[in-house]
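Regression report. Comparing outputs from two consecutive submissions.

Submission 1:
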Amino acid sequence: MTHINTISSFAAIAALTASLTLGNSSRTAVPKHVTDTVYVRESPAQIDYDELARHVAARIQNQAKPTVVDGDLIVKGRLSVGGAPEPGTDYGITVRGPITSSLRFISNEGLMDPQRTDNQHRHVGTLGLAQDGGLRLDVNSTCFTDQRGCITEDRARRRAFTGYDSMGDYAFYLSDVDSLGQTTAPRSQSLVFSLIGEDGHIHINAFRPTQQIYFNGSTTTNAGDLQWQVPLAPIAPAR
């Protein structure tokens, strides 16, 4: 067991803290490995996380090595990426960002997707809070910070995202993609559930021109061979 009061464990935690605080480095180096379980105890005293980050960054600035904890990491307190935890809260994990704040998920790095035996590659997804306040789950897309922008990774599949938009309505977006990985659908939400419309009622909105809404049922499993089309009519102008 590695205890927090040992010099070696303090160095491991310091390196890990700096890696979370500083983000990615432009230098490439062999990662440092720390074996055994690492415990981080919550200090009873108030911690100045910004001051701590400055001290840690100054100590390992010349190393520029990511830290790999080859074992368990247990934080008995709060973990924050991009800045200090929010004062007066007890959120276990905080992710801060100057524009968007996101968590990144990457799967199938072992190339074992049973649906794509002849075309194996990774899958990606992002849970993010956008700068406009929308909370969204973005599937099959990687958004770069350079001129590439957002690219659909698996071009045999669609790009989709769903979640709350900036007005608090729940929205869905789905699009096919072209050979360059760009979406082909209009830049509008596919379907929006507005729980409080301008008239105070619940509305289901299809915002893309010419798209209709259908309810489907099946006579056999997965058939979808029964449908009812929602009749649409122009909204009368307000008087």
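Submission 2:
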Amino acid sequence: MPLLPSPPFNRLCAKAERAFYEVVVVNQVAIPKAAIFTGFCSDEKVAPRIEISAHGGPEEPIRSGNYKLRVTITVVGSADIDEDPLLIEQVKAKDLHEVNVGTVFDILAVAQVNDWLNRAVPEFYVFSWLAVDIDHHVEGRTFRDTIVLEVYCCGAAIVPEVPLVGSGSPETPPG
């Protein structure tokens, strides 16, 4: 049996994390905005925050360069948020957390999210994704809502053979 090259998980996972980061950052609506971190090293950060991490999965079909990654988006809130002296009306911690969670879910529900992800990072293309797990729990005075996505993607720019519009250059295919 021939040896297969190691999957480019590190680079592809970093691109997946960055693409989801860019999409969430651009569409965030809560005031104050949650800090957003990528990777698995965000445990020591303050709340409110959004953590985006990815890890590798199987190549499907084999030798295609297409992978199913697991992307985990965790929204972390705290019952002990600091009051902002610039806000006339203070936001309650639980309400702020619910807005941050709602924002992430609303972003993922938008029909154009694949197109946004495909345009966020060069040489990264999402064919599809599927929510495989959703969790909500409270750890002491910390709220945690997690959504795990199975993202079918590749580390290449996908360009259709025929331009989608007019006779100009090819455009990114719709998601």
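Expected: both submissions complete independently.
Actual: both completed, but the second showed a warning that disappeared on reload.
Relevant detail on submission 2: Residues 9-154 form a domain with the Alpha-Beta Plaits fold (CATH 3.30.70.1700).
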